[in-house]
Amino acid sequence: MSKLGNLGARLHRGEVGYDFVGNRKIWYGLSILITITAIVGLAVRGLNMGIEFQGGAVFNTPKTSVSVSQAQEYAEKASGHDAIVQQLGSGDKATLRIQVAGIDTAQADKVSAQLAKDLGVAEKDVTGELVGPSWGEQIANKAWQGLGIFLVLVVIYLAIAFEWRMAVAAFVALIHDITITVGIYALVGFEVTPGTVIGLLTILGYSLYDTVVVFDSLKEQTKDITKQTRWTYSDIANRSINSTLVRSVNTTVVALLPVGGLLFIGGGFLGAGMLNDISLSLFVGLAAGAYSSIFIATPLVADLKEREPQMKALKKRVLAKRAQAAAQGETPDAPATDEPFDHEPEDAAAAVVGSRSQPASRSRGRGRPSGKRR
């Protein structure tokens, strides 16, 4: 078995682990810093909205000896508006995509003719597509509606399937992922198109997947949690993260590899603009979703649950039992007088962090003769 497989098995059994929940303030601080950076980038640079959202015209021409920057100057001079020029493809099949916002049909015809003259190509080789601003506004409204409906349904489902605290934590994690992804778009300057919206809605499902996996494990392991005095809710939450950690990392890496291929090869080397629009949102969203499910959602659930009177009383009993066990020379995190959960196998009752400790031998049954009792 590989080293990663061994590590995954040991994490699942609780033999080793990392205290994610105990260090939650570090993760909260890091997430706040990243989120603030994304918001500042969005406020300062703004989003580079595509032609579909603001209206205008898109011209496609064969690539000539004219550079991209020079073609942009020609387009802005001919239209009197800001222009965005991209080179698509390479070699003999290379083309220029010239996007000019805020022009109507009459202006588009004049710009097309002037571009053909400036770029040194036949006028018939310059193809144009006009997009009205009302259509872009409809797309934007539909995108916001879809996002709102999705978030509402997610919160309702998680509140029914798990509990409202998990629904709140998942909602916060989703907002965290969306904010980071949108902020990265603003900082990088990639164009926001309908493909971007599709990618953004897609990553919400991926982000939620890892979160639900951890929540399902947490729900299962916290059944009858108040009937024991070995673990606090935060301890069980930490064990849930560790037991699903390798699975979350593996699924995220497997998903990121093809998306990274689309982004860096398809978009970077082949110059496929639409691939950039979709793949960047997918790549950033997948990474942010894996991060938030481990470092944000579950620790936040533990914080909310630890505020309950029952969980506060449980934590007090657990800490008192551990102090008593330590005074008696027993293992503090696994007192000899405790029993594991009814639904939990004996070998699963391992320490939350660090090496597994064996409980001290129990005194009951000592001196009893062997054989059947009469």
What secondary-structure arrangement, pairings included, does this model have?
Blueprint: H1 3-13, H2 24-45, E1 48-49, H3 51-54, E2 56-62, H4 68-79, E3 83-88, E4 95-101, H5 105-119, E5 127-131, H6 133-161, H7 164-188, E6 191-192, H8 194-221, H9 233-269, H10 273-305, H11 309-327
Helix pairs in contact: 1-9, 2-7, 2-10, 4-5, 6-7, 6-8, 7-8, 7-10, 8-9, 8-10, 9-10
Short overview:
The protein has 374 residues and is α+β, with helices and mostly antiparallel strands.
Number of self-contained structural domains: 2
Question: Looking at the chains present, what oligomeric state does this protein adopt?
Answer: single chain
Q: Per the principal axes of the C-alpha atoms, what is the gross shape? A: elongated
Strand order of the largest sheet: 3-4-2-5
Number of helices: 11
Helix content: 55-70%
- Report the average pLDDT across residues: 77
Estimated radius of gyration: 29 Å
Task: List low-confidence stretches.
Answer: 334-374
Q: Which secondary-structure class do the elements indicate?
A: alpha+beta
Instruction: Work out the strand percent.
Output: 5-15%
Number of strands: 6
Report the order of strands and helices.
HHEHEHEEHEHHEHHHH
* Straight-line N-to-C gap: 49 Å
Biggest β-sheet: count, sense, barrel?
A: 4 strands, antiparallel
Family: Belongs to the SecD/SecF family. SecF subfamily.
GO molecular function, one term: protein-transporting ATPase activity
GO biological process, one term: intracellular protein transmembrane transport
Main location: membrane
